[in-house]
């Protein structure tokens, strides 16, 4: 299947010698037909196609590999996120892929990454299923002229190929991999293989990983963020983990969306790398997210894992309670308020989103440069594991354990994160960008014991920062984490600025904060060498584990 021509994947060999048939650059209409014909999904009453990706989600970093044949080791981040695989070992996997491809059909899309004439990179996405081809067509910019796609295929223009084959599994006992799921990057052959997972989001992440490497070598910063722009041309960036709410807060009725999830920051300004959105659609309603709700409930959109009535073909995504891993993809053009100019001005505000499941963080805080860079690296991301089962009515928070996912925000990085962090430092300084922490999760009490923050309050906090309403208010220093928290914020409850006031047990709250800070420091120490020197030196300013965590430390503004 994967014969190479001039160091790149040879699609002609793929079609002539291995695969039974290649479906090249199929339209949305043809992909719908194939999805239904192959029983990959169902057509919903509202026109979208509904597929099942089971419970697959972003894979563990330990399943990501890079073939040891690349040059420029100073650029490549060799870590748990990019483990080295010997060429001989990869060749054995490669040979089994060729055997697997015999007499199978594949879908190929020729697309562009980056909505900018000077930066766009032609990519080829090969998928085993029609639905993953539709996902790719929704997310990236199609090459509308078919002859143009054929010209690129037959030319010597450098392409990166991304091959998604969920039916092919690596074998740990034979291949030396950690599991049956593997993502293998070969920079020399300009190809990425995504094996053993149905999760469509890995395609987007693999492309970002390569763009992060290509642009980074050109001193162009890549960011996992969404962005929007106001009437005065002021750009805001929203950084954070998947699920933190980047897309949700960026799609604002009073501002125009520039792009979702992936951008680059050049000397001239901000460029969107994607042409579509891929969002968590659990509990989505027309009331809480009308723009997104209408975009996913129409022809051309694809929804994963949504309950659908077998007779009426009606969907129910409004009462999921985050259990079914419902996701949706659609082109940006489906949204009513977007700005698709090729380049936008430098941002005035950067918001680091944290979906805080512990209930410790305030809804908004102002960050120093050092805190902003630390947040960029760590994303303050953590998972909450409930140690008791649903039949246990014990409400003691000591039964909840928190696991910090340090460096999860840069898990898709192929470029050494020190390079990216230093580029971000320079850009923030040069353009005098204000940096903020936004909590989109829970306040006072942890997830499961309180309601998630209403999106209206999150928007109010963001709008207050953008409008300058927080420029002249007084601030308190938040204990332990050293954030600057405004004493007041328009349209935001004062208790959301001081989470302990919402805690049922204030002593337990201080213990919870202590535990979170301690875990953050312990996990950070494993990645300290990945930080720029000036950030490592100021860690003691960001989080002080020595500071007393007595109740009175949290009593400001009470």
What would a concise description of this structure say?
It is built from 15 helices and 28 strands.
Summarize the SSE layout with pairings.
Elements: E1 4-5, E2 8-9, H1 11-18, E3 21-24, H2 28-37, E4 41-43, E5 49-51, E6 64-67, E7 83-85, H3 87-101, E8 105-113, E9 121-127, H4 130-139, E10 141-142, H5 146-154, E11 160-165, H6 172-175, E12 182-186, E13 191-195, H7 201-216, E14 221-229, E15 235-240, H8 246-250, E16 256-259, E17 262-265, E18 270-272, E19 276-280, H9 290-296, E20 302-304, E21 327-331, E22 347-354, E23 364-366, H10 369-378, E24 382-386, E25 400-404, H11 417-431, E26 434-439, H12 455-467, E27 475-477, E28 484-486, H13 506-524, H14 533-537, H15 539-542
Parallel strand pairs: 3-8, 5-20, 6-7, 6-12, 9-11, 11-13, 15-22, 22-26
Antiparallel strand pairs: 1-2, 4-5, 8-9, 8-10, 12-13, 14-15, 14-16, 14-17, 17-18, 19-21, 20-21, 23-26, 24-25, 27-28
């Amino acid at each position: 299947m994967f014969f190479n021509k001039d160091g790149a994947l040879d699609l002609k060999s793929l079609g002539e010698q291995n695969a039974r048939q290649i479906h090249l650059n199929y339209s949305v209409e043809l992909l719908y037909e194939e999805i239904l014909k192959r029983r990959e999904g169902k057509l919903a009453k509202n026109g979208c196609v509904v597929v099942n990706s089971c419970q697959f989600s972003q894979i563990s970093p330990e399943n990501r590999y890079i073939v040891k044949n690349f040059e420029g080791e100073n650029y490549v981040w060799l870590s748990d996120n990019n483990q080295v695989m010997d060429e001989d070992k990869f060749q054995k996997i490669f040979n089994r892929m060729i055997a697997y491809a015999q007499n199978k059909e594949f879908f190929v899309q020729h697309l562009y990454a980056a909505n900018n004439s000077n930066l766009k990179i032609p990519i080829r996405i090969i998928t085993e299923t029609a639905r993953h081809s539709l996902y790719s067509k929704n997310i990236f910019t199609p090459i509308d002229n078919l002859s143009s796609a054929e010209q690129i295929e037959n030319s010597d223009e450098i392409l990166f190929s991304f091959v998604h084959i969920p039916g092919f599994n690596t074998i740990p006992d034979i291949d030396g991999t950690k599991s049956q799921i593997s993502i293998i990057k070969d920079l020399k052959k300009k190809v990425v293989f995504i094996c053993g997972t149905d999760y469509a989001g890995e395609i987007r992440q693999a492309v970002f990983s390569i763009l992060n490497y290509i642009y980074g070598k050109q001193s162009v910063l890549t960011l996992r963020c969404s962005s929007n722009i106001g009437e005065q041309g002021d750009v805001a960036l929203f950084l954070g983990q998947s699920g933190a709410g980047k897309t949700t807060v960026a799609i604002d009725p009073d501002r125009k969306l520039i792009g979702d999830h992936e951008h680059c920051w050049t000397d001239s300004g901000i460029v969107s790398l994607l042409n579509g959105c891929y969002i968590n659609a659990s509990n989505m309603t027309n009331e809480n997210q009308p723009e997104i709700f209408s975009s996913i409930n129409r022809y051309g959109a694809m929804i994963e894992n949504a309950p659908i009535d077998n007779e009426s073909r009606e969907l129910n995504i409004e009462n999921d309670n985050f259990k079914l891993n419902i996701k949706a993809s659609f082109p940006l053009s489906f949204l009513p308020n977007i700005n698709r100019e090729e380049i936008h001005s430098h941002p005035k505000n950067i918001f680091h989103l944290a979906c805080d499941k512990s209930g410790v963080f305030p809804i908004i805080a102002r960050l120093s440069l050092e805190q902003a860079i630390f947040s960029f690296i760590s994303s303050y991301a953590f998972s909450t594991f409930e140690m008791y089962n649903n039949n246990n009515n014990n409400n003691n928070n000591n039964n909840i354990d928190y696991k910090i996912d340090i460096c999860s925000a840069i898990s898709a990085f192929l470029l050494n994160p020190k390079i990216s962090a230093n580029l971000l430092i320079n850009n923030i300084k040069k353009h005098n960008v204000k940096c903020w922490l936004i909590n989109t999760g829970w306040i006072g009490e942890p997830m499961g014991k309180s309601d998630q923050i209403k999106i209206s309050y999150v928007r109010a906090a963001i709008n207050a920062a953008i409008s300058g309403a927080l420029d002249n208010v007084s601030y308190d220093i938040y204990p332990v984490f050293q954030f600057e928290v405004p004493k007041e914020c328009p349209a935001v409850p004062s208790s959301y600025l001081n989470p302990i006031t919402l805690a049922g047990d204030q002593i337990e709250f201080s213990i919870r904060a202590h535990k979170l800070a301690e875990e953050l420091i312990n996990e950070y120490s494993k990645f300290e060498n990945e930080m720029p020197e000036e950030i490592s030196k100021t860690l003691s300013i960001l989080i002080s584990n020595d500071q007393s965590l007595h109740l009175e430390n949290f009593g400001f503004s009470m």
